[in-house]
Amino acid sequence: MSRHPTTKWAQRSDKVYIIIELPDAKDVKFTLQPDGRFYFSATSGAENIPYELDFELFDKVNVDESKAAVGLRTICYLVKKAEKKWWSRLLKTAGKPPVYLKVDWDKWIDEDEDDEKEKKFGGMDFDDMDFSKLDMNGADDEPDDADEDDADMEGAEAKAEDGGGKVENAHVASTSEPLAKA
User: Fold this and answer.
1) Cα 53 to chain centroid, rounded
2) Over the Cα atoms of the chain, what is R_g?
3) Which residues are CB-contacts of 111 (< 8 A; sequence separation ≥ 6)?
4) What is the pLDDT confidence band of residue 167, given thresholds at 50, 70 and 90?
5) Local structure of 36: helix, strand or coil
6) What angle do CA 41, 74, 129 make, to 5 degrees?
7) Which of the residues 4, 16, 30, 112 has an alpha carbon 20 to 30 A from that of 76?
8) Which long-range contacts (CB under 8 A, 24 or more apart) does 12-16 make?
9) 11-58: per-residue pLDDT in tens?
10) What is the DSSP letter of 82?
11) Strand, coil or helix: what is 97?
12) H or E stretch at 75
């Protein structure tokens, strides 16, 4: 019998974020169908414990524009909605959601805040942008130490070689190899 991993979700008017928390996931398989059927399976741990999710999402989705990223601790899905509108819930079935399904309050934005954000930033999406990587040094800042820059570059190259994550089209995808550990 399969277990259900902790799953978080949040939405915008045009997309839904689904984040599955499953460290060291192996044999990751997922399917997304246009009618909103979302299926996920993987194994985790030394005992290769099977995990599975099978959801019927609230409304139809655009499979071709949806994406998935398999990381070391989480599997993230960006599901594009077929119509740009807010869903009253993630699942088609009404009632209390399963205990393993939670709202991701870190990504959550209310409907009226989403409209304000579009007007304020001209519709540009900065949600996934990591501003810490931008060089924001001013004229009066001290120059960076060259040794620190070399160490940072070596770390970045090692992470790239490890394959720190994989991004795939979300229609049907799977991995049969265990993910590299950082």
Assistant:
1) 15
2) 19
3) 13, 86
4) low
5) coil
6) 135
7) 112
8) 12/109, 12/114, 13/81, 13/84, 13/85, 13/86, 13/111, 13/114, 13/115, 14/80, 14/81, 14/84, 15/78, 15/79, 15/80, 15/81, 16/57, 16/61, 16/77, 16/78, 16/79, 16/81, 16/87, 16/90
9) 999 999 999 999 999 999 999 999 999 999 999 999 999 999 999 999
10) S
11) coil
12) strand 74-81
| Euclidean distance between CA atoms 59 and 83, whole angstroms | 9
Looking up tokens 């970045």 gives 156
Q: What is the pLDDT of residue 57?
A: 96
Dig out the tokens for 138 from the structure: 């001013």
DSSP state of 133: G
Reading the block at residue 143, the tokens are 């120059």
Q: What is the pLDDT of residues 100-158, one digit of tens each?
A: 999 999 888 877 775 555 444 455 555 555 555 555 555 555 555 545 555 554 444 44
Entry pTM: 0.64
Amino acid at 122: G
Dihedral, CA of residue 38, residue 41, residue 74 and residue 169, to nearest 10: -50
**Cα–Cα nearest to 68, from 29, 102, 109, 114:** 29
How would you class 39 by CB atoms within 10 Å of its CB: exposed for 0-12, middle for 13-18, buried for 19 or more?
Answer: middle
Tell me the two tokens of residue 21.
């928390």
